[in-house]
Amino acid sequence: MGLFNVFKKKNIVEENEQIAENDPLENFPELLSAKLLFLDKPNLNSNQILTEVKKHFENVEHSFSENSLIFSFPDHPIQFADATIPVQCTIMIPDQGKSEVELPDAAFQQNWHWPEANQIAKNCTYEILVTDLMSRTLPYKERLNVFMDFLVAVVNITQPSAVYSSPAQKILNPLNIVSTWETDKIQMLYVICNVRLYNISNNIDDKELLMDTVGLHSIGLPDFQIRFSTADENEIANLLWTYAYYAYEFGDIIVDGNTLEGLKTGSKWKCEKQFSLVGPERIVVNVTPD
Fold first, then answer.
1. For 51-75, b where at least 16 C-beta lie within 10 A, e where not — what string?
2. What residues does the DUF4261 domain cover (predicted)?
């Protein structure tokens, strides 16, 4: 693959013997959402979507209207003080007659994984929004599984030309979303996470780059950022993906002063939690090369 190969992950050595309690620097889960983009208005068959969703969820309740399709999953309950309700996922349909795609500028800036992404998205004229609801208090792994199973079901039936991930600020090939998710789900973060590259130098002769992850914050985990000047960008990108999957596996356990293995075996790069240098504003683990 090309730049930022998510498959090339290496082992890391961590020194996270102390787990912070009540760490004030933390991200709180946000809405998970994706825009499905179409060249022309699709034929949204709610019954076909329901049938496909039922392939992923044994128990499904639904409520359909002109502008929204709501699916509830009783096997994934959320407990409130006075009630228990099922997690929901929705498909929001534009008002009749609306035919336009609205994406932020950030959507077109960091699509290293799919060279055709920008042009295909700009050619699209219709969008639908897929989100989760009432799910932020679910354990993040369970929550991501629910959202991804639902998203893949909708993509399989509607066949969009592109998908914009709001948490990751990137445009995705729908075929890749389905294939990566259905291959033993080995790339849990493919849809909701991205690795980005920025030149933060003020001086042409003194190059300084910043690379970070974005999207982990949406499930309540810290993102990561690294400032560097001489390292290979692809190697830093692969390292950030490794850190991202480490955080996904073990949770928000990195505290100030812990170290993560860097590019060289046995190297120890110091960690410090701080506010991100590049938006969206969120908490990141700033990793400093030794």
1. ebbeebbeebeeeeeeeebebbbee
2. 212-286
